[in-house]
Amino acid sequence: MFSAVVSTSAALGRLFVFDSEDFAEARPQPSGAELFAEGHPPQRALPASSLRRAFSEDARLASVIPASQLQMQPAPEMVSSGIAAFDALAGGLPRGCLTEICGPASSGRTTLLLAALSAATRRGEFCVVVDASDALDPQSVAAAGVELKRLLWVRCGEDPPRKLKNTAKKNLKNNQSSKFDEGGSPTAGHRLEQLLRATDLLLESGGFGLIALDLSDLPPQTACRIPLTTWFRFRRAVEHTPTVLLAIEQKSIAGSCSSLLIKLGAAGKRIREQSISEHLDSQFPEPTHTQLLTGLEITAELVRSRLDRKPVRSAAITFASTTAWAG
């Protein structure tokens, strides 16, 4: 086999026959005047800008990495959530990712949050809880084993009472939509706005092992007002950092921006019956017994996980939550 380069201008109007055994000697190419005399206009040379553009496109194509040579993104580091059954289901909480924990009231959301805070502070990490409804109980936090000196509690809506009252009266007087109700307390929309601002500042500052966004007591229609672009910004801000971003909600609202989605539910409650006659005065009627709530049976379902390359099938576990007075 052989290869030959044939000039385009020499091939116009001429018939060439190539023989692989006996290749004819090279013939002189006609000049531009001869081609013009034969009725063929002379060809123009490509401008320098076109040549540079062609070479630049070739350089860009040469810089493209083939798909077979692409490296897989390393799996994020997983840390313990403080609950062994949860770690067995999801592998723990991923660093540098957004994790959603959703469920109705009394489904174990606070139990999981306190367990994660306790495990993180015991590792020597500083944690933040951005409380949208100001519902966190410090005594329950301390009873769960959380080191309070390593915890920052951001209480949304904590503005000076006089400022809240004056702003509410002014807006009501002008018949304007207010961020505060008639009593001067912040509405759910105002609390949500403060939560988003605080989260932006915390993610920008860095240095936290766990940032928890507690939206569990906000109405779902209010929490759904957070646009997906905001969740995407949060995910990109926490990416490639050792921070665990945890969102506690009633329903999933982050969509595809979350790397892990866990749905909680109450499977049952544990009741202990005991006599309380010894604790009552004899002048009152004595009830024979009473019921005391000692714990809940909680189910956790792995709805979505983007941590593995293979699709994850739905899986569920059950774990118990014990009340503080149950001992």
Q: CATH superfamily membership of the domain at 78-262, which one?
A: P-loop containing nucleotide triphosphate hydrolases
Please state roughly what percent of the residues sit in beta strands, choosing from under 5%, 5-15%, 15-25%, 25-35%, 35-45% or over 45%: 15-25%
Instruction: Provide the CATH architecture of the domain at 78-262.
Output: 3-Layer(aba) Sandwich
The top-level CATH class of the domain at 78-262 is: Alpha Beta
What level of helicity do the residues show? 25-40%
Number of helices: 10
Shape: elongated
The profile of the biggest β sheet is: 8 strands, mixed
* Overall mean confidence score, pLDDT: 75
- The third-level CATH topology of the domain at 78-262 is Rossmann fold
From the alpha carbons, calculate the radius of gyration and give it in angstroms.
Answer: 35 Å
DSSP strand tally: 10
Span between termini: 90 Å
- In spatial order, strands of the major sheet run 5-4-6-7-3-8-9-10
Name the poorly predicted regions.
Answer: 1-18, 20-24
Note the run of SSEs as H and E: HHHEHEEHEHEHHEHHEEEE
Helix and strand content put the structural class at: alpha/beta
Set down the secondary structure blueprint.
Elements: H1 8-11, H2 32-37, H3 48-63, E1 78-79, H4 84-90, E2 93-94, E3 97-102, H5 109-122, E4 127-131, H6 138-143, E5 151-155, H7 161-173, H8 188-205, E6 210-214, H9 220-223, H10 228-238, E7 244-249, E8 260-274, E9 290-305, E10 315-322
Parallel strand pairs: 3-7, 3-8, 4-5, 4-6, 6-7
Antiparallel strand pairs: 1-2, 8-9, 9-10
